Amino acid sequence: GLVIQLGHPTGLPCCLPKPPHSDHFVIIHGNGIHSMTLRLCGCETTATPTQQLLQYHLFPASTDKLQTAATFSVLEEYHLLSLKSKVSAHHYYTLLTRQSDNTGLSPPKERYEQFMWMAHKWCHLKMLKHSGQGHDPRVANGTKQGECETTRTHLRV
């Protein structure tokens, strides 16, 4: 089956590939929920496993047990749909499940909780970024309630 190798340019093999926590890694994308084999780069000069996923625009559901990730595009799409169309997370996740298997005979692995955590974290990071609080981890961790509020300027013409 398909094997995705992180940490190296496409087509270049890694001499020290290592599996994440689980052999069957689940990726949530806009066209469904997919279980595949993922290999992390084990070279000494490489980034951490979480950084390797982020470099490939995969947002991990956990930093200690790498089993699930969502693409940046699916998180952004859900964020926009929830804001503009009021689509619930459950309905959006059901859509992704149906795109994977509309018959229900072999549904994808259940990752709704992980999807909710990633979506919540994604929205929080976007809020920090838009309020100018997301560039320094110390500032982001110390942000108090209400500090991300942005003021609107109304121009009179």
UniProtKB/TrEMBL annotation:
Transmembrane segments: none
Cited InterPro entries: CxC2_KDZ-assoc
Annotated coiled-coil segments of the chain: none
Biased composition (Basic and acidic residues): 146-157
Organism taxonomic ancestry: Eukaryota, Fungi, Dikarya, Basidiomycota, Agaricomycotina
Any Pfam family the entry gives: CxC2
Domain CxC2-like cysteine cluster KDZ transposase-associated: 1-104
Protein name, per record: CxC2-like cysteine cluster KDZ transposase-associated domain-containing protein
Spans annotated as Disordered: 134-157
Domain of life: Eukaryota
